Amino acid sequence: MPSYWLAVASADHVRIGRKAGFMQVNHGKRGPLAKVRPGDGVVYYSSSTVYRQKDGLSALTAIGFVRPGEPYQGFMGSGFTPFRRDVAWFEAEEISIRPLLDRLDLSVGKPNWGYQLRFGLIALSEHDFRLIAETMGAKLQEVAASTL
Fold first, then answer.
1. The CATH number of domain 4-147, selected from 3.10.590.10, 3.90.79.10, 3.30.70.360, 2.60.40.10
2. What's residue 56's pLDDT?
3. What are phi and psi of 17, to 5 degrees?
4. What's residue 53's pLDDT?
5. How far apart are CA 53 and CA 47, in angstroms?
6. How many whole angstroms separate alpha carbon 63 and alpha carbon 17?
7. Which residues of the chain have pLDDT under 50?
8. Which of 3, 83, 85, 94 is at 20 to 30 A from 16, Cα to Cα?
9. Which residue numbers delimit the EVE domain (predicted)?
């Protein structure tokens, strides 16, 4: 039975990972990625477009399934070797989270729902994952069957 996760990163960082087929969280720490297993669903939330700039983006920027394998270290230059996991990303539209806030288990009835995101990776309900996938235009069955 897969688990579902909401990861947090700026949209520019998420786009790098989507293009290269990986995810990383919490500035490359291994610990959070050790919770994530092959076959798990992952959604990225981006509060901003560019790292350390506050522009109020508040968007869901990527969705996919974790590929087989363990966390590994990538190389980003200047000696920075963050831990990553490979992900089969869906073809999906980036969307604002705001229209979904009254329908997501993550946020319904929680005026301070964003506070929990400070951890960088949190569990997400299957309901939320499926609602987000549908809203982003992702085809779950096609990706799950063809990429894992």
1. 3.10.590.10
2. 82
3. -65, -40
4. 83
5. 9
6. 11
7. 145-146
8. 3
9. 4-134
Q: What pLDDT was estimated at residue 145? A: 46
Q: How far are the Cα atoms of 4, 74, 107 from residue 124, in angstroms, in the given order? A: 5, 26, 11
Res 140: pLDDT = 72
pLDDT at 60: 97
Q: Reduced to 3 states, what is the DSSP secondary structure of residue 83?
A: strand
8 Å CB contact between 21 and 68:
no
Q: Spell out the domain ranges in the chain.
A: 4-147
How many CB atoms lie under 10 A from the CB of residue 134? Answer: 11
Measured torsion, CA atoms of residues 89, 40, 60, 30, in degrees rounded to the nearest 10: -90
What pLDDT score was predicted for residue 143?
A: 53
CB 129 within 8 A of CB 105: no
C-alpha separations of 132 from 14, 29, 62, 76, 79 in Å: 16, 26, 10, 30, 36
